[in-house]
Amino acid sequence: MPAAVGQGQSILLVEDDDSVRLINRAVLEELGYKVHVARDGEEALRVFNRLDNVDLLLTDVGLPGMNGRQLAEVIQQLKPRLPVLFLTGYAEGAMTRADFLGPYMQLLTKPFTLELLASCVNSMLEKNDFSPDGHPLPKR
């Protein structure tokens, strides 16, 4: 497990699979982040609206009801520069749609290592993975 890198930033984690949600929450909290959880898009909106601040939306794409991409759209209307990290097992379908990732959005394909999750979250929170217009910078 990587060393703690977070500085108490607030992450809204949205995942319908209980075990995945619990593991990801534990990892992120161990890394120094404050994690708020929701099981679906509707619950995520309620959690988001009652929080003072959210620094990152970390959401599964395939949620029941409102999917992760729809959730991100709604939340980014409320907080336009909020970084969004999508987790998905369906990257082929998502990546073939050029318009799937909007500004300040990135995609992480399952399965992934906890180290990769930590690295993606850290770089997105540092805002060094985005151009001024919010699009991901090319990987070096």
TrEMBL record:
InterPro entries documented for this protein: Bact_response_regulator, CheY-like_superfamily, Sig_transdc_resp-reg_receiver
Keyword line: Phosphoprotein
Alphabetized Pfam families for the sequence: Response_reg (PF00072)
Highest taxon, organism lineage: Bacteria
Residue ranges of domain Response regulatory in the record: 10-125
One of the GO biological process terms: phosphorelay signal transduction system
Entry-linked SUPFAM superfamilies: CheY-like
Residue(s) carrying 4-aspartylphosphate: D60
Protein name as it appears in the record: Response regulatory domain-containing protein
Species assigned in the record: Pseudomonas fluorescens
Lineage: Bacteria, Pseudomonadati, Pseudomonadota, Gammaproteobacteria, Pseudomonadales
